[in-house]
Amino acid sequence: MKILVAGDRHVLSRLMVEALEKELGDGLDVTTIDFGWPMEPHAEVAEVKEAAGSEEEVIEAGPGAEVIVTQLAPITEKVLDSLEDLKLVVVTRGGPVNVNVEAATRNGVIVANAPGRNAPAAAEYALGLMLAAMKRIPDAHASLKGGEWRGEFYAYEENGVELDGSTVGLIGFGAIGSRVAKVLAAFGAEVLVHDPFVDDGPVREAGGRKAELGELLERSRVVSLHARLGDETRGMIGAEQIAKMPGGSVLVNTARGGLLDYDALCDALESGHLGAAALDVYDEEPPPEGSRLFGAPNLVLSPHIAGATRETAHRAAGIAAAEVGRYARGERPENAVNGEAVGR
Length: 344
Hints:
This protein is α/β, with parallel strands linked by helices. The protein has helices at residues 13-24, 55-61, 77-82, 101-106, 119-135, 137-145, 175-187, 200-205, 213-219, 239-244, 262-271, 310-328; strands spanning 2-7, 29-34, 43-45, 48-51, 67-70, 88-91, 110-112, 167-171, 190-194, 208-210, 222-225, 249-253, 274-279, 299-301.
């Protein structure tokens, strides 16, 4: 079985090869190629999104490959039609948007992903951004680094707020949101959860309570987004929803940029209705020059790095290697996103 491993500067090809050797043993027939992401931005390639490298690079490296393991390689219809021996593509990320899944299914190619690979990292980062916004940590850091000791941070009207005793609303309760809920409960927060796809039991076990979106928005001092992006959730938090949040509350988005109306967010920050916000994801990445986000007050920004830990890279490689191992042993895949292509 020939395997093509297409790595990048985060999920390194050597990490994937090491994980495959641990799963399948030494002496594997592996070809590796490496892309420059994140030093080079990912992009749309033909009909797929968030890809690194070119179709030609994959086709040139892939003859005879039965399996491809990658995070970002463009697995387009052209690539799938060119690699006639291909039977399995494992993408070391949650959303395989760099794969034409429909074309893969037509070609009988199983596409599998790596759900939960960055859940610990993203949950920790969401909490970090939440605390940074609530406590004004970036402002304090920047002023002191600039040589200014700002005593007014201790003035009542400039004070931060606490999680202990606060109501925090989580929109989405998957692998990341559920971890955030447990930590918030340990901080002493009342946790409200809006997720129509989750039963009451897991939410209660994490120390939270399910709530309708309206109640969550009206009661929460902090709202943190953890929902998947789809047709039903795109733009789900706009001006109307933000207006329901209490004055001075905090909004955090580490999930997907498309969930949130960023103009409405800037309006609410500029008017003072929102006390603060923190973002790691954007409707356009990177935000364009002159974006209102760069001038909005009390806004903490980071460049989509919530999942950027070494542990994430190792975990992603391990999840992918386990999927290849199941395929090699003739077992059913655990994380196939196109079950109709699973012919056994």
